UniProtKB/TrEMBL annotation, chain A:
The chain crosses the membrane at residues 13-34, 104-126, 138-155, 162-183, 195-223, 244-263, 278-297, 309-333. One of its GO terms (molecular function) is heme binding. The lineage of its organism: Bacteria, Bacillati, Actinomycetota, Actinomycetes, Streptosporangiales. GO terms for biological process: cytochrome complex assembly. This is Cytochrome c-type biogenesis protein CcsB. Its main location: membrane. GO terms for cellular component: plasma membrane. It comes from the Bacteria. NCBIfam families: cytochr_II_ccsB.
From TrEMBL, chain B:
GO terms for biological process: cytochrome complex assembly. It comes from the Bacteria. InterPro entries: Cyt_c_bgen_Ccs1/CcsB/ResB, ResB-like_domain. Keywords: Cytochrome c-type biogenesis, Membrane, Transmembrane, Transmembrane helix. It is a multi-pass membrane protein. This is Cytochrome c biogenesis protein. The chain crosses the membrane at residues 35-52, 89-109, 176-197, 451-470. One of its GO terms (cellular component) is membrane. It is found in: Membrane. It comes from Nonomuraea dietziae.
Length: 337, 518
C-alpha cells in the first residue's frame, strides 16, 4: 500500500472507531438503564457487617461472576475494608436481556479498540515515524489508551458500569480530533525526529488515558447523588478513580521526567518553564495533592473528587489550551484546522 | 502527616511567649493541611508564568509589552510577573513548602526507624471481626504457621496460640525516599542556577566562536560563575545544510539540518569534525552546545561614491516568515564617503514573481535567491553617537527621519540575483549582491545540576512507585482446639484491592500440607 492509501485507511479507521464506540456506548447504556438500580454504600440502608471478602476468598477470584449488582456494592474486589455492605430493599427484577446488552457493548468496545489501534498503526506506517507527532495523532492515541485501560481493567474486575461513559468520552475525543485537529499525514520538524518521542509521548499518552478514566469516574461521582440511582455506586466510582490515578501518577511523573531529558537534548536545558512544562508541573502538583489529600489528610468522597477533577481540567488545558492559546516551544504540536 | 496528626489541631496560641509562638508556627507549618495548602499555592503561583511572557524565555515579547503598554509592563514588573520563577514570592512559597516537607519527613523518619525495630502486635482475640477472615484446613501449630509466614517474607511474632505477621514496610521507605528526593531535586536546581551559565550566539558560515564571555550575543551567568571558569573550547562553522519537504501538504517544512563544525576542545588540542544537529548537542567537558535555529546571511559588497569598497561581508537577516524564510536584512555602511549609506533589504531564498509584478519567496530552500532593496538611504546613521544600536535595525526612529531616501517604493530596483548590483543615484556608490551564506544560532549551557537533578528525579520516581504500589498488611493466625483461624487487614487506605487474592493465597499456604508449600 502506498503512504497515501495507508493514511486514508487510517482516517477511515478512526471514523469506524467512533461508530463502534458509540455502538458500545448504547449497549452499556441499555444495561445501565434497565439493569438493577444501585444504592450508594454510604447511605444508611440496612448495613450488614458481613465483609464481602469472605465471598471472594471462597470464590477464589475477586469477581464472583454470578454475584448480583447489590452484592457488588459490598466491595467484591476485596475492598470490604472500606465500607460495610448494604443490602437495600430489593428493587424490581430487571429484564433478563439487560446484562446481555452490556456484553454486546463489550464486544463493540473491543472491536472499536482494534479499529482505533489500527488507525494509529496505519498512520505510523504512512508517515514512517512514531504516530504521535501532532495534536491530532496525540488525541487519537489518548482515546486508544483510555479505552484500552478500561477494557483491560474489565478483564480483571467488573467495571462495566463505567462502560457507557468511557465510550462516549472516547467517541467525543476522536470526533473532536477529526473535526478540529486533523492534519494530513506528513513529516514532523527535526526536533521531533528522535527516539525520545517514543518514550516521552507514549508515557504521556498512557497516563492521560488513565487519568481520563479517573476523570470520567469523578464526573459521574458528582453527578450521581446518594441513594438509589441507575448510575454506578459512589464507592465503586471512587475506587475506580483512585486506582486509575494511582497507576497513572507514576507514569505521568515518568513522562514529565522523560520530557525533561528530551528537552535537555533538544532545547539546551532540562527545565525552562515553557508553558507546557508549567502546566505539566501544575497537573502533577494537583494530582499529588489529590493523593495526599486521600492518603494522609483523610479527605474522601466529594472533596477528593473535586481535587481530582481540577487536576484533570489542568491536564486537558495543557493538551488543548496550551497548544492553542499559549504556544511556547511545544507549539510545533501542529494544531490542525 | 497522619490522620491523627491532622486532627490533633494546633491549639490557638493564647498568650504565648515567643517560644510558644515559634512552636505554634512550626507545628502549623509542618501540619499536613498547611503542606497541602502550600502545594496548591505552588501550582497556582506558577500559572501567571504561563500567561505572561517570561524574561528568561521570551525576552522579545516582554520588550514588546514594554513598547505597547509601558504602564502595564511597569505593573507587571512590580509584581515580578515577567520573572515569576525567580520572584521572591514564588521562592517564599516553595521554601515554606520544603521547610514544611522537612518538618514532616524528620519526625516521620524517626517514627519509622522505631517501628522497624518493633515486632508486630499481639493477634486480636476475635479474628472474624477483621476485614479478611478465613479458616485454614488441616493441622498446624504455631511454630509451623510462623515458619510458613516467614517464608512468605512476613515479619513474624508469636505467642501462646497465636501468630502475628506484618509485611510491606518498604511502602514507608518509598514514601520517605520520595520526599527526600524532592529535596534533592530542589538542591540540584539551585546548584544549576548558582554555578551554571547559559548564553546564545549567532555564527555565520565561515566564522568561528571561542567560548569567552565577550563572544556571546547574550550571556546569562549564575550568580557564582566567574568569567575564567568557561571551558576554553572553540569551533568554526564550515558549512550549514538544511533540507526541506519538496511537495505535498507540508511543502517547505524543515526535514533536517546539520551544522558541520570543526572543533578544538581546548586551545592545544587538534581540530576535529563534528556534525551538530537538533537533539544531538555537542558536549565538551560538561558544557553543552545546542543548535537551536538557522537563517540566511546574504553577502553584499558596497562601493562608495569615491569608488572604494566600504563594506564587504555577510549580513545575518531576521526571519520574517518561517515557512518561506523570507528574511529582513540591514546593511549599515558608516565608512562610506562622502556620505554614510544604509540599506533595508529583503532576502527571498526562492524568489518568484507574482502577476502584479511583486516578488515573494515561495520556498525556504535557496532555489532562486534574490535580494530586494526595500530602501536605500544616505546621511548620518548615528552609529558613532555612542548609543548602543541593534544590528537588525538601520537606525532609531529619530535618526531615520533625518536620513535621505535614495531608492524607495516605485524607485526601488527589481530584486538582485547573485552577482547583480544596483547603482545608487547621485553617484553615491553601488551595492552588489555577491553570494549567500547561512547562519545558525546556538545555545551554550553549563549546568552542574543536570546529573544530580536526573538522579534525584529517578529516585523520586522509583520511590513513588514503591510508596504507591506496596501495601502494608498484617495477617494473624489463632490456633485453638485444632482449628486454624486466619485474619488479615491492610493498613493503607484504598489499597485493599487485590489483597483478597493475596489473602486467599496465604490461607492456602497455611492450609497446605508441608510439601505443597513453596
Ligand atoms: C521538561 C520538558 C517537557 C515537559 C514537562 C513536557 C510535557 C509534556 C506533556 C505534559 C505532554 C502531554 C501532552 C499534553 O497534555 O499536551 C507532552 C506532549 C508532547 N511533548 Fe513534551 N514535554 C517536555 C519536553 C518535550 C520535548 C523536548 C519535546 C520535543 C522536542 C516534546 C514533544 C512533545 C510532543 C510531540 C508531545 C505530543 C503532544 C502534542 O503534540 O501536543 N516534549 N509533553
Amino acid at each position: 500500500m502506498s503512504a497515501e492509501q495507508l493514511a486514508g485507511l487510517s482516517d477511515d479507521l478512526v471514523l469506524g472507531a467512533v461508530l463502534l464506540y458509540l455502538a458500545a456506548m448504547i449497549g452499556f447504556a441499555l444495561e445501565l438503564a434497565f439493569g438493577r438500580a444501585r444504592t450508594n454504600t454510604g447511605a444508611t440502608a440496612l448495613t450488614v457487617t458481613e465483609p464481602g471478602v469472605k465471598e471472594s476468598v471462597a470464590a477464589g477470584s475477586s469477581m464472583a461472576a454470578g454475584s448480583s449488582v447489590a452484592a457488588r456494592s459490598s466491595g467484591e474486589s476485596g475492598e470490604g475494608a472500606e465500607a460495610g455492605a448494604t443490602v437495600a430493599v430489593s428493587p424490581p427484577e430487571p429484564p433478563s436481556w439487560a446484562p446481555k446488552a452490556g456484553t454486546v457493548g463489550l464486544v463493540f468496545g473491543w472491536v472499536g479498540l482494534a479499529a482505533n489501534l489500527g488507525s494509529v498503526v496505519t498512520r505510523g506506517l504512512a508517515v514512517g515515524r512514531w504516530p504521535w507527532g501532532n495534536m491530532y495523532e496525540f488525541v487519537v492515541a489518548i482515546c486508544l489508551a483510555a479505552v484500552a485501560a478500561f477494557l483491560i481493567t474489565q478483564l480483571r474486575s467488573n467495571v462495566r458500569f463505567l462502560g457507557a461513559f468511557v465510550m462516549v468520552t472516547a467517541a467525543l475525543g476522536l470526533g473532536f480530533a477529526v473535526i478540529w485537529l486533523h492534519v494530513q499525514a506528513g513529516p514532523v520538524v527535526p526536533a521531533l525526529n528522535s527516539y525520545w518521542i517514543a518514550i516521552h509521548v507514549s508515557a504521556a499518552v498512557i497516563a492521560s488515558g488513565l487519568f481520563t478514566v479517573g476523570g470520567v469516574s469523578g464526573i459521574l461521582y458528582l453527578v450521581r447523588g446518594e441513594g438509589f440511582s441507575r448510575l454506578p455506586t459512589r464507592t465503586d466510582l471512587e475506587r475506580v478513580a483512585h486506582r486509575a490515578i494511582v497507576l497513572a501518577f507514576p507514569v505521568w511523573t515518568f513522562a514529565v521526567i522523560a520530557g525533561a531529558l528530551w528537552a535537555d537534548k533538544a532545547w539546551g536545558r532540562y527545565w525552562g518553564w515553557d508553558p507546557k512544562e508549567i502546566w505539566a508541573f501544575i497537573t502533577w502538583i494537583v494530582y499529588a495533592g489529590y493523593l495526599h489529600a486521600r492518603a494522609t489528610a483523610g479527605w474522601k468522597g466529594r472533596a477528593a473528587t473535586i481535587v481530582q477533577l481540577v487536576a484533570f481540567a489542568c491536564l486537558l488545558f495543557n493538551l488543548v489550551g496550551v497548544n492553542i492559546f499559549l504556544g511556547g516551544l511545544h507549539s510545533y504540536a501542529d494544531v490542525g484546522g | 502527616m497522619t490522620v491523627d496528626e491532622l486532627q490533633k489541631e494546633t491549639p490557638q496560641p493564647a498568650k504565648l511567649g515567643l517560644v510558644g509562638w515559634l512552636r505554634w508556627f512550626w507545628r502549623t507549618l509542618t501540619s499536613m493541611k498547611t503542606a497541602l495548602v502550600l502545594l496548591f499555592l505552588f501550582a497556582l503561583a506558577s500559572i501567571p508564568g504561563s500567561l505572561v511572557p517570561q524574561r528568561s524565555v521570551e525576552p522579545d515579547k516582554v520588550a514588546l509589552i514594554y513598547q505597547n503598554d509601558p504602564a502595564l509592563a511597569e505593573w507587571y514588573d512590580r509584581f515580578y510577573l515577567f520573572d515569576v520563577f525567580t520572584a521572591p514570592w514564588f521562592a517564599a512559597i516553595y521554601l515554606l513548602l520544603f521547610v514544611s516537607l522537612i518538618g514532616c519527613v524528620l519526625p516521620r523518619t524517626s517514627t519509622y526507624l522505631k517501628e522497624l525495630r518493633r515486632k508486630p502486635p499481639t493477634a486480636p482475640k476475635n479474628l472474624s471481626r477483621l476485614p479478611y477472615h478465613a479458616r485454614a484446613e488441616g493441622e498446624l501449630d504455631v511454630e509451623e504457621a510462623a515458619r510458613r509466614l516467614r517464608r512468605l517474607r512476613f515479619r513474624v511474632a508469636t505467642g501462646p496460640g497465636w501468630v502475628s505477621a506484618e509485611k510491606g514496610y518498604l511502602r514507608e521507605t518509598g514514601n520517605l525516599l520520595f520526599h527526600v528526593a524532592l529535596l534533592g531535586l530542589l538542591v540540584a536546581v539551585g546548584m544549576g542556577s548558582l554555578f551554571g551559565y547559559r548564553g546564545n550566539v549567532l555564527v555565520v558560515e565561515g566564522d568561528g566562536f571561542a567560548n569567552t564571555v565577550a563572544a556571546y550575543d547574550r550571556y546569562m551567568p549564575g550568580s557564582r560563575v566567574s568569567a575564567e571558569s568557561l571551558e576554553p573550547f572553540s569551533f568554526t562553522l564550515k558549512d550549514f545544510q538544511a533540507s526541506y519537504q519538496l511537495g505535498g501538504d507540508k511543502r517547505g517544512q524543515e526535514l533536517d539540518y546539520t551544522a558541520k563544525l570543526s572543533v578544538n576542545d581546548s586551545p592545544e588540542s587538534p581540530a576535529r569534525d563534528y556534525d551538530l544537529k537538533v537533539n544531538e548537542p555537542l558536549e565538551i567537558d560538561g558544557t553543552q552546545t545546542y543548535l537551536i535555529g538557522h537563517g540566511y546571511a546574504p553577502v553584499f559588497r558596497v562601493t562608495d561614491g569615491k569608488g572604494q569598497i566600504a563594506f564587504d561581508g555577510p549580513v545575518p537577516c531576521l526571519i520574517e516568515s518561517k515557512p518561506t524564510l523570507t528574511s529582513g536584512c540591514v546593511v549599515k555602511v558608516p565608512d562610506a564617503q562622502p556620505e554614510q549609506l544604509g540599506f533595508l533589504l529583503q532576502f527571498l531564498p526562492t524568489s518568484v514573481r507574482l502577476t502584479d509584478g511583486s516578488h515573494v519567496s515561495a520556498f525556504p530552500g535557496q532555489l532562486n535567491p534574490q535580494a530586494k532593496i526595500v530602501g536605500a538611504f544616505s546621511g548620518d546613521l548615528g552609529v558613532r553617537s555612542g548609543k548602543p544600536q541593534s544590528v537588525y535595525q538601520l537606525a532609531p526612529d529619530d535618526v531615520m527621519k533625518k536620513l535621505k531616501p535614495l531608492a524607495m517604493g516605485s524607485k526601488a530596483p527589481p530584486p538582485l540575483a547573485v552577482g547583480q548590483s544596483f547603482d545608487l543615484p547621485d553617484k553615491l556608490g553601488k551595492i552588489e549582491f555577491t553570494g549567500v551564506k547561512e547562519w545558525m544560532t546556538l545555545q551554550i549551557a553549563h549546568d552542574p545540576g543536570r546529573m544530580p537533578a536526573l538522579l534525584a528525579s529517578a529516585l523520586a520516581t522509583v520511590a513513588l512507585v514503591m510508596s504507591l504500589m506496596i501495601r502494608r498488611r498484617r495477617v494473624f493466625v489463632r490456633i485453638k482446639d485444632g482449628a486454624v483461624d486466619v485474619g488479615g487487614l491492610t493498613r493503607t487506605e484504598g489499597s485493599g484491592t487485590g489483597f483478597g487474592e493475596e489473602f486467599a493465597d496465604i490461607v492456602k499456604a497455611l492450609s497446605a500440607g508441608e510439601k505443597d508449600v513453596r
